[in-house]
Amino acid sequence: MIFETAKEFIRTQPGVECFAVDLDVATQELKTYLLWFDGDDPDDACFTVNYERGRLFSSSVQTGCFLESEVPNEVRAQEFYPVEEGLKDVLVTGLESEEVLFALLPNMSDPMLCVSDVERRRFTHSANRQLDMIQNWVGGMSPRH
User: Fold this and answer.
1) pTM of the model
2) How far is CA 76 from CA 20, 69, 126, 138, in A?
3) Sheet hosting strand 46-55, strand order edge to edge
4) If residue 74 lies in a helix (H) or strand (E), which one and from where to where?
5) What confidence tens digit (pLDDT) does each residue in 33-42 have?
């Protein structure tokens, strides 16, 4: 579901959050977005998007958040999925990007075993194919157990 639909979904399901994942194969950058509603204070109730971005196989992770009015069009165009139990821990813990993909995508090989550039490119392309399949399938993602 797109951003606006995800907001409506969250409004009708108190306590539910949605997430999106964007992998750029060319730059090997992964971005994750967590959309949630902060309704604790009725005067300041708003949607917030927390994000993490980082290059695969790099220890550098950038984090931040957007208030609803600041959310860029690039994020609004993402496909959002409901967060299932255990998934939030994967999305907002500062894990390295390849570890996030390994946790999200059940058929991924262990990124710790990808030591060469060729293996890392294969990992990236495999993740991209799996994300494409999920986006074309009506459903969602569950964390690796």
Assistant:
1) 0.84
2) 10, 11, 25, 19
3) 62-67, 46-55, 29-38, 18-24, 81-82
4) helix 73-76
5) 999 998 766 5
